[in-house]
Amino acid sequence: ARTERNAVAHNNLSVALTLGGRDAEALEQARIAAELDSEYVTAQANYGDLLRRAGRHEEALVVLGRTLELN
């Protein structure tokens, strides 16, 4: 579906931004991907990890906990 493809594209962009050291932008793209498809495990895990890396540990725990439930 269109939303799923968008989630994949935003997640892929997030990964590319992370590799380029643009963590704040990567986090925003990961958030969009996670919101577009709440069952896309890779996007949820990426978002949770980027939240953790940003020091937003409580939010990361919530996202990663939901991710484990999906898996």
Structure notes:
- The structure is a single chain.
- The protein is mainly α.
- 83% of the residues lie in helices and 0% in strands.
- The chain is built from four helices and no strands.
Briefly say what this structure is.
83% of the residues lie in helices and 0% in strands. The protein has 71 residues and is mainly alpha-helical.
Shape by Cα distribution: flat
Distance between the termini: 21 Å
Low-confidence stretches: none
What proportion of the residues form beta strands (DSSP E)?
under 5%
Please state the CA-atom Rg, rounded to the nearest Å: 11 Å
Q: Strand count, sense and closure of the main sheet?
A: none
String of helices and strands? HHHH
* Overall number of strands: 0
* Alpha-beta classification: mainly alpha
Number of helices: 4
